[in-house]
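Hey, weird one. I pasted the Cytochrome c1 sequence into the form twice and got a warning about non-standard characters only the second time. First submission, copied straight from the form history:
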Amino acid sequence: MVRIIGFFVGLAFVGMVFISFFVNIADYVANPPEETAEHEFHKHPKEVHFASDGPFGHFDNQQLQRGFQVYKEVCAACHGLTLVSFRDLAALGYEEPEIKAIADQWAIQVPSVNADTGEAATRKAIPADRFPSPYPNEVAARAANNNALPPDLSLIAKAREGGAAYTYSLLTGYQRQPAELVHKFPAAKTPQGLYYNPYFPNLNLAMPPPLTAEGQVTYADGTRASVDQMAKDVSAFLVWTAEPKLQNRRTAGFAVVIFLLIGTILGYLAYRQIWAEAKRKVRVTGPLEAESQAKAQAAKDDQGVAG
């Protein structure tokens, strides 16, 4: 009886699931979701190549140094790198005296405590410090940016779909809002204080165009600092901040793959050498085996049992 009741309860549950599914499908077909400006005018990141792309990619230290210079002179006023230390710059080819000078001359000082009074204070950075945030807290950051919170850039290349291509596209994607968009979606007109960028998810963001003119940064290596070049360089630099051990990880991965490949080949050859010619011997056992039948007959004879 319990099984019958359980069967009908389960049948009713499955029936309700199917009814709900088909009702929702019918409602979706009858009342499809309205098109939005974001859905129609949002663009995927541009096709752009970086030296670190692909399984054989590697960091170009000259490009990373140029990207760090763009970050320092353009981005650092609003965006922090709180997961990166000054001494990590050694991986980009900077010497120890250069790193000490960069930390000492950094425009934003590191939070500290006055040893005499115990009150909050600031001090110059040292190589062991992480890059300080330009704002003391989130409230101050929002107050200085029309209630928008500038994200920390340490992991931005991993936190955004498209990675470096998204960063590059965003930096080079600012433009006037298309008239077609305003005509079709009047409510989606870019509000005052925001800037239209089709590569941003909701098309409008609070950050003004950070790279506006050629020569905004003067590269130490003499590279022509076009807007496109600066955007590529800082995007490559942010890939490094998000994955500073990328090359080491790939090198270790290739070593493991080669080791496993060699181990597989050696194992197969050992199998062929040792076991391939060995014949598997199967011995028939059971009550019908001749030896078992002889023992059974002997036991019967001992007990005087016929047959």
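That's the output from the first submission. The warning seems to come from a hidden character in my clipboard, not from the data itself. The first strand starts at residue 110 and ends at 113.
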